[in-house]
Amino acid sequence: MFLQSLQLHDFRNYAELALDLSSAKTILVGDNAQGKSNLLEAVQLLATGRSSRALRDRELVTQGKEQSRVAARIERLGGTVELELILRAGKRRTVRLGGETQRTQAEALGYLNCVSFSSIDLDLVRGAPETRRDWLDGILLQLEPIYTSLLAQYLQVLHQRNALLRRTDLSSEALAEQLPLWDDLLTRHATPVMRRRHRLLLRLAPLAQHWHRAISGGRENFAIHYQPQIAFEREDAQSVQQALTELLAQKQALEVRRGTSLVGPHRDEVELTIDGIPARQFGSQGQQRTLVLALKLAELNLLEQVTGEVPLLLLDDVLAELDLHRQDQLLGAIGERVQTIVTTTHLGLFDSQWLHSATVLTIKQGQVHPDGA
Ligand SMILES: Nc1ncnc2c1ncn2[C@@H]1O[C@H](COP(=O)(O)OP(=O)(O)OP(=O)(O)O)[C@@H](O)[C@H]1O
After folding, report:
1. Within a 13 Å sphere around the CA of 80, how many CA atoms are in the beta-carbon half?
2. What would the pLDDT profile of 127-174 be if each residue is shown by its tens digit?
3. pLDDT tens figures, 204-258
4. CATH number of the domain at 1-113+309-372, please?
5. What are the domain boundaries of the chain?
6. Which protein residues touch ligand 1 with a CB less than 6 Å away?
7. Which residue, by CA, sits nearest to atom 5 of ligand 1?
């Protein structure tokens, strides 16, 4: 897969951009706050429908403007794909594929696959469980676009069930009457989300272990496990839903007291251990970085295995965070095959061979100039 071009209109600090990407490696260099991350964010948005930095489209549309346009031309094994996204402050998005408006955004997912790695990802190991859940979801959205609607449906049911649990005007009898319906909906929508997360981690684990051994020199034993609140002994849908229903029954009194849902994939954890010890609390900074790098490289391999296309790699200001050994591992893994866009404030951080084979573009106040301009 190759991202041939990117066009932006009134997106963040870009009034107008038409960028042709011709080499496998592009380095975007510029001072802080010039628009480097904004450009990668636009690519991420086309790949996953989400931004890791913005919660609302309003933040993505240039201040004072009504709407943004983000478009790309992607070369895939099956042919060239034109993707287009219109973002509006406070309104629905429009998604076009080959010029045709799609009914839902999910229909335009899966055409551009990318792995993003930024300094925020260093929180993948030490951050809150939500960070790891978001990471899994971001991969699943690309692997199986239908996951977008599975997750959205679950979150909607969760939201409505929480609203019910918070109601103060209901008698306990009235609540007890209404809850079983919501329990059924919650467990029914929770099950496909959890089964997909579980399967994803089973596939990611050996790949991440391979990279971890390569980077750490095989000295440590890394394990990664899905840790939902229920035992995943039997993973067929019926067993998972049954286990969730039983747990809900146990927690019901507590849920009513707290006024919130305490069971479901919104409480999932992903456990990362080094030699059996949780990396989150006990890993050194170096160990945590090695882990994150191994997870990202595993993500790259998995996307390629499943889609049959080499995904695009977006490295946002992250090389400076890695020591020379880890940089070498990363650059070695990328090799010549993986189209990579890297942002940096200093070209001095790059390996000279890499620098020679890359196209260097300077970003200044939302404009892109060829190197040296
Ligand atoms: N909706 C928006 N409208 C207009 N400008 C915006 C909008 N959102 C962000 N910006 C501008 O984009 C710039 C930030 O760009 P970006 O996050 O890409 O920085 P960067 O070049 O990656 O720098 P750093 O190295 O600090 O991360 C800021 O100048 C900010 O004011």
Report:
1. 7
2. 999 999 999 999 999 899 899 999 999 999 999 999 999 999 999 899
3. 999 999 999 988 888 888 999 999 999 988 889 999 999 999 999 999 999 999 9
4. 3.40.50.300
5. 1-113+309-372
6. 12-13, 30, 32-38, 59, 61-63, 317, 343, 345
7. 13
